[in-house]
Amino acid sequence: MAAAVALVALVVLLLQQQHCAIGQQVPGYFIFGDSLVDNGNNNQLQSLARADYMPYGIDFPGGPSGRFSNGLTTVDVIAEQLGFDDYIPPYVTASGQDVLGGDSILQGINYASGSAGILDETGKHLGKNVPLGTQVQNHQKTFSKIAAMKGGKDSATKHLNGCIYYMSIGSNDFLNNYFLPKQYKTSKLYSVDKFTVHLATTYRDKIKTLHHYGARKIAVVGVGKVGCVPHMMDMFGTKGSKCIQNVNSAAQNFNKQLKKLVVDLNKELKDAKLIYINSYGMSDGDPTILGFKYITSGCCKSREDGQCVEGETPCSNRKEYVFWDSFHPTETGHKAVADRTYKSLLPSDSDPFDLHSLAALDIGKQ
């Protein structure tokens, strides 16, 4: 089973322009996160959190790739918007490249892992995954390879200073940890307030490690309305509400900590710039304006753990569904989020500015 979904943009996008990139805007693009952005790192793991089978990838060129979607994910669309010729490869394939052969790792790597969280233990009841700490360690290995390719650590750092670092993780720490008291002790050890502080403190340490290894342009994506995920509503019930309010409240609490983290690190790390992406706020509005008709159910028939049943035929009207399975957005949903991440539709979509502006930022002239 995969990570919880940062729901799609549900505010009207009819006036939003399509953003067509002209040339590659940054030297590289590095992705950290969970199943919302995983593109194949879990394919060889002993885990239920895998998407390397049909109907996953039914609309993706080449079929199932490990993406928890019918097609593209948010980070794939952003790669197009940033002007990359291809999608960013997963670490499991990119890590095996000869440091002297080609320059693909210079273009970026996707380290994300389905069911993973900020905390090491998160999601482990589903099997193996690659938590944020290990994803950061994998990037340290990438740094060493780039240093070998570029002729030293200084050259590697200079290259990475201009790259986009996209971080989308934290949903599973609630849905596949805190709110599963039979599998995890965190809800007994921490109040929601103390748990969100614990998560943010751990997250902060990982970001500072990335900064030490060259990261300067960092996008931190907030947790979406995880209390509105179909699987969660089926498990816990909504008691007459549209969503599970206490789960959404926990997400909001954590997002406040993330926003504070971004502000604090922007003050502390004078040579870097972090932005906060408000995925929770992008869920507001009327989904029917975007053409969505099915809001609380997934397009594919789902297993008890919320993922698609292998080999089952999904719905044909996929663009009318917010959710692909019982956790993750359809490609249409991912595109809506990507558009507002790359260029804000509303001032509240990102802070202090959007991803397009971050990409264009001359980090040495702040």
From TrEMBL:
One GO biological process term: lipid catabolic process
Localization per Swiss-Prot or TrEMBL: Secreted
Signal peptide: 1-23
Gene3D superfamilies, per the entry: SGNH hydrolase
Keywords: Hydrolase, Lipid degradation, Lipid metabolism, Secreted, Signal
GO molecular function, one term: hydrolase activity, acting on ester bonds
Keyword Transmembrane helix set for record: no
Protein name as annotated: GDSL esterase/lipase
Organism whose genome encodes this protein: Linum tenue
GO CC annotations on file: extracellular region
Taxonomic path: Eukaryota, Viridiplantae, Streptophyta, Embryophyta, Tracheophyta
Family, similarity comment: Belongs to the 'GDSL' lipolytic enzyme family.
Highest taxon in the source lineage: Eukaryota
Xref: InterPro entries: GDSL, GDSL_esterase/lipase, SGNH_hydro_sf, SGNH_plant_lipase-like
Keyword check for Chaperone: no
